[in-house]
């Protein structure tokens, strides 16, 4: 192609682009002053006018522009109807090339006259496309075939068109920054030239055919044929000629024939989608160009799809396949943590921390398809969502309207993901053009699960399932064997840590971070532990009493003035700790109607201060399953004059040197270490035979099955995980929690440094957030609080972040000084153990024969002696200590159950050590360490 032709093509492309751009801009201004009816008619005429301009230019230029037009013609779900009606003409044949050109290419490529190869060659082509045209023929041996012949000189045209398309996209991105398609065109420039080698296409066709004919386990436990599609056999190929088996089929745009043959279009598109799910998630090798022209439908029942044209076929690595599967499944589950992990594994880098918006955008690609008739509603929905995301970005980054249009939240976009998303868009367009709806989440899920869970590659070896770290004791070796015996059916991910006489004797991690996150659990992984958090929050209250900041007998209203309303004037601090305040259901109805209220720390404190008790303070011990955290949290902030997170760091995290491994509400930056929750469905079924004990609110049990299945969905979202919920939103490692209880077991003595064999070392992570040094005002309401940052600037702390995080940071020198000033004990009181347990002089502060001391669940051994205390959480995680034997233990799990795994682990360890087993974990005791339920098995209930 000469320079003159090149310049002419380029001028035509850019002239047309400018003409259409200014046409739309002019209409955009003009329709502001007309009625709604006239506005709609004006836009329809504008779309028709410009669609015809685009069509005429594409037919004239051929090459890449036809292929682009074919792609656009499939997007009935997002493009205005006039464009679809006009551009779908490109799905039919283009004007054919002369027979002399066709004959010359065939004879040059095959090295012999056409008459020697074909007994018959039909002169009229079956179809003429952008790169080649296809003729029907009969080989000399009688086989019916189709012959694909590349257009003469098309390679130079395509390469030039790619340059022009790249320039055009760059100009659009400059003129309208919100429409930056550079990553997509870059990937297309890399992949499109591969279509010009028919030997490459032939090998791709053979590979896809082999892959789709294999038997595959799709996650249901049964082996079945993966997909039911037909692919022509490759007979012969050269660089520019491809001979394939002839298959008689119906074109997808031939609606009359589809109706006449009784083709079920819904099942047809579902099977095509299944074929692509297999190619992407199982094979890692897929056709990147599924437009309607690349499919036929067999005329014989059951009318299978016939897959054609594998020129643009993409191979992706196993790691990318798994990342795409994780992205899909995290969208299906609403799991922000897994989604961000998938982005990182894909190489997708974001410039801004907005997990909810990232989830919204990612979910767009897997949304249910719409019919062409619903295109307007779909476009409006997508536009509305985009506006919401732009608004959120503008608020987050504090940008003006002009700046937000130019801001690109994506720092790096992997090419593999671009082709993947193009395929999804083409499939969506295919379903829209055939006027059927496809639920991608249902169809593609088994294939994504199969890949991510490794069902096609066998189970994880034992050597990899248990994290590679040296055993600290013989009992730890026996524990690891026990975990292997339980296996992945009962355990998803687990951490176990134990201290005896101040020394680490167990520090084991095993399994995976999540059902859809196959990364191994490590010692520093963070597990959500639910009510285990109450034991940490209680420790903060005790620390403030020890520091002289409040008293157990003090009325809460004296510390927190807004609290003293609605007959709460007599509630004391020890009533909160002992679950006897009468506020066991506080905020229950509010949270049920608005679950996301839990993310607003200040509002929950305001709401709980307005609640009315249901029973007289001290009269009944009824488990405060959620209210405990906000009640104690309000006391902590008002008594200390500091933010909740600051007190947690000062009282527990820094003295124990467990930075980065114990949080109540996680800060941004730790997502890569988070374990994701799932539910043991078999154990959940056992709830039907269990009723609540006397100290459990009946309202809790009535909704427990629904709550247990819904909790992972809610708590796998980052906005909930980042919230301060001091009754239920702790995130910690077993080694951090065990160290905490090892200190409590001795009345506050800080144990020696954690085992040096545990990698990474405990306390080596940066602990964020850090807090301003200026104190907040004590015993005041919830007004805005000002403080001075380390840079000397006055800043508003209360509005810095709804979940309580301040963006302010103390200096490293402040941290070092605070660490150096901490003593070897957390508590100085020699009676602190009695306070934890609610015995001795504190016995009058706890309910007689109640299960709780002051903030901790107290356990007895076989002789009835109360020498154990701790706290377990819904799903099975637990932390506790044995004061008499100076023993502490923590177990973290992410497969939520009624606690059978945890109970077995605790019993094994204690029996091996010859230590008494707390009644909650014994064979004759209650049903597992589940303090939210606090239930007993049916045979033990009266």
UniProtKB/TrEMBL annotation:
Record bears the keyword Cell wall biogenesis/degradation: no
Signal peptide range: 1-28
ABC1 atypical kinase-like domain mapped to chain residues: 89-339
Keywords: Coiled coil, Signal
Compositional bias segments (type: Basic residues): 776-787
Annotated stretches, region: Disordered: 751-813, 919-942
Identification of the protein by name: ABC1 family protein
Pfam families according to UniProt: ABC1, Beta-lactamase
SUPFAM superfamilies assigned: beta-lactamase/transpeptidase-like (SSF56601), Protein kinase-like (PK-like) (SSF56112)
Keyword flag Signal: yes
Classification via CDD domains: ABC1_ADCK3-like (cd05121)
Residue span(s) of domain Beta-lactamase-related: 489-762
Coiled coil regions, renumbered to chain: 376-403
Residue stretches of biased makeup (Polar residues): 788-810
């Amino acid at each position: 192609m000469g320079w003159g032709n090149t310049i002419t093509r380029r001028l035509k492309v850019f002239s047309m682009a400018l003409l259409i751009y200014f046409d739309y801009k002019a209409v955009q201004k003009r329709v502001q002053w007309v009625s709604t009816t006239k506005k709609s008619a004006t836009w329809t005429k504008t779309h028709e006018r410009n669609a015809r301009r685009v069509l005429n230019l594409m037919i004239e230029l051929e090459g890449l522009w036809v292929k682009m037009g074919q792609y656009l013609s499939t997007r009935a779900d997002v493009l205005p109807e006039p464009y679809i009606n006009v551009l779908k003409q490109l799905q039919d044949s283009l004007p054919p090339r002369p027979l002399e050109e066709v004959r010359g290419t065939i004879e040059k490529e095959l090295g012999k006259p056409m008459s020697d190869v074909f007994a018959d060659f039909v002169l009229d082509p079956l179809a003429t496309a952008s790169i080649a045209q296809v003729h029907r023929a009969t080989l000399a041996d009688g086989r019916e075939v189709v012959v694909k012949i590349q257009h003469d000189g098309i390679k130079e045209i395509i390469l030039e068109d790619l340059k022009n398309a790249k320039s055009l996209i760059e100009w659009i991105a400059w003129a309208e920054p919100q429409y930056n398609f550079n990553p997509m065109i870059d990937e297309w420039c890399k992949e499109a030239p591969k279509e010009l080698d028919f030997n490459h296409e032939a090998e791709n066709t053979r590979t896809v055919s082999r892959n789709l004919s294999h038997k595959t386990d799709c996650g249901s436990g049964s082996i079945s044929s993966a997909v039911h599609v037909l692919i022509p056999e490759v007979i012969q190929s050269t660089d520019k000629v491809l001979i394939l088996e002839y298959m008689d089929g119906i074109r997808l745009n031939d609606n009359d024939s589809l109706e006449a043959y009784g083709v079920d279009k819904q099942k047809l598109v579902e099977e095509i989608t299944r074929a692509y799910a297999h190619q992407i998630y199982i094979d890692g090798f897929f056709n990147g160009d599924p437009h309607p022209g690349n499919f036929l439908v067999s005329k014989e029942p059951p009318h299978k799809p016939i897959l054609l044209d594998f020129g643009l076929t993409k191979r992706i690595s196993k790691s990318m396949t798994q990342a795409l599967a994780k992205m899909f499944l995290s969208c299906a589950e609403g799991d922000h943590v897994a989604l961000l992990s998938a982005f990182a594994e894909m190489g997708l880098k974001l410039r801004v921390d907005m997990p909810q918006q990232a989830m919204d955008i990612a979910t767009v690609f897997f949304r249910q398809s719409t019919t062409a008739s619903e295109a307007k509603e779909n476009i409006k929905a997508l536009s509305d969502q985009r506006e919401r995301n732009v608004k959120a970005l503008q608020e987050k980054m504090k940008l003006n309207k002009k700046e937000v249009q130019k801001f690109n939240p994506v720092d790096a976009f992997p090419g593999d993901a671009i082709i993947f998303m193009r395929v999804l868009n083409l499939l969506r367009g295919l379903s829209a053009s055939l006027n059927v709806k496809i639920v991608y989440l249902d169809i593609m899920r088994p294939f994504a699960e199969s890949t991510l869970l490794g069902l096609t590659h066998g189970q994880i070896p034992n050597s990899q399932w248990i994290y590679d770290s040296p055993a600290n004791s013989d009992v730890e070796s026996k524990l690891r064997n026990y975990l292997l015996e339980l296996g992945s059916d009962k355990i998803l991910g687990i951490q176990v840590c134990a201290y005896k006489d101040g020394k680490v004797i167990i520090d084991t991690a095993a399994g995976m971070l999540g059902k859809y996150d196959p990364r191994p659990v490590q010692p520093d992984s963070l597990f959500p532990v639910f009510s285990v958090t109450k034991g940490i929050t209680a420790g903060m209250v005790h620390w403030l009493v020890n520091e002289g900041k409040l008293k157990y007998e003090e009325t809460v209203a004296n510390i927190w003035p807004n609290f003293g309303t609605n007959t709460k004037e007599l509630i004391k601090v020890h009533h909160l700790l002992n679950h006897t305040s009468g506020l066991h259901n506080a905020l229950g109805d509010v949270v049920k109607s608005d679950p996301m209220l839990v993310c607003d720390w200040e509002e929950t404190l305001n709401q709980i201060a307005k609640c009315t008790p249901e029973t007289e303070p001290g009269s009944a011990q009824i488990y405060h399953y959620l209210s405990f955290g906000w009640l104690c949290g309000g006391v902590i902030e008002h008594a200390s004059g500091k933010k909740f997170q600051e007190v947690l760091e000062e009282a527990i995290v820094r003295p124990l040197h467990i930075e980065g491994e114990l949080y109540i509400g996680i800060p941004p930056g730790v997502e890569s270490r988070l374990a994701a929750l799932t539910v043991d469905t078999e154990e959940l079924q056992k709830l039907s035979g269990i009723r609540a004990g006397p100290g459990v609110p009946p309202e809790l049990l009535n909704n427990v099955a629904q709550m247990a299945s819904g909790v992972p969905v809610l708590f796998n979202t980052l906005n909930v995980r980042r919230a301060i919920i001091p009754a239920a939103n702790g995130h910690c490692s077993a080694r951090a929690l065990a160290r905490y209880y090892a200190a409590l077991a001795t009345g506050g003595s800080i144990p020696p440094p954690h085992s040096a064999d545990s990698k990474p070392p405990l306390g080596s992570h940066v602990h964020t957030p850090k807090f301003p040094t200026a104190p907040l005002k004590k015993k005041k309401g919830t007004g805005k609080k000002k403080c001075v940052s380390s840079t000397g600037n006055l800043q508003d702390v209360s509005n810095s972040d709804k979940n309580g995080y301040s963006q302010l940071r103390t200096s490293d020198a402040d941290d070092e000084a605070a660490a150096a000033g901490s003593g070897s004990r957390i508590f100085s009181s020699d009676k602190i153990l009695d306070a934890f347990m609610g015995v001795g002089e504190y016995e009058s502060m706890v309910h007689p024969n109640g299960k709780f001391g002051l903030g901790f669940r107290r356990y007895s051994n076989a002789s009835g002696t109360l020498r154990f205390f701790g706290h377990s959480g819904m799903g099975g995680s637990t932390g506790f200590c044995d004061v008499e034997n100076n023993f502490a233990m923590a177990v973290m799990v992410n497969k939520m159950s009624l606690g059978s795994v945890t109970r077995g682990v605790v019993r094994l360890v204690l029996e091996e050590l010859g230590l008494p087993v707390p009644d909650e974990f014994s064979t004759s005791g209650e049903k597992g360490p589940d303090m939210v339920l606090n239930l007993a098995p049916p045979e033990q209930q009266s």
